[in-house]
Fold this sequence. Notes:
Radius of gyration: 20 Å
Order of helices and strands: HHHHHHH
Helix content: 55-70%
Distance between the termini: 17 Å
Oligomer: single chain
Number of domains: 1
Number of helices: 7
Amino acid sequence: MLDAHSLPQQPSFAASFWNVGSLLYYSSLLFMLESLFYWKKFRNAYEEDSVVFSIFWLGSLLFAFSHIFMVILDGWSRFQNYKRIKDYLFVHGFTPKIARLYKGSKCQRTAFIVAARELGMEQKVISYYRRLGIKWYHFVPHFMIKDPWFLFKRYFWSRTFMEKHYEPKFNYRALDPKISYHAYRN
């Protein structure tokens, strides 16, 4: 277990939530703007009785609109990963075995890196991912390349959008050498 004296100052819950999913939340905003654009295109095509263009713009609208919710659910899942990872790192320290589990996507790596940063282990994690050949611009998850039928697989839906709620075992903001026995949650 890490020593409470060596912990960097812990950010607020909201700051951690934002840091883990900021890329996803920006994407959500883009999908909202895209949905608005497609809505206008669909409405214009519908008013002009253009069936082919109406169907095209409706399909585009539904695609963009559904992604708003998918991105929000992905953000929720990554935050659950972050809380689980942070507890693990606090108790066991950095291990490549665990970091490997979260190398699959940019969002999962971000959750891991944010948890590590908050515990003072960010450089170990970044160095490990660099040794694996992962660059900052690797956004497309590995499983999408390996398995083009991923949309029809249960693992994709459960791991990407439906992570179970995880209650952290420690209140990191309350960790203080004088009161560390209060930091463990039962």
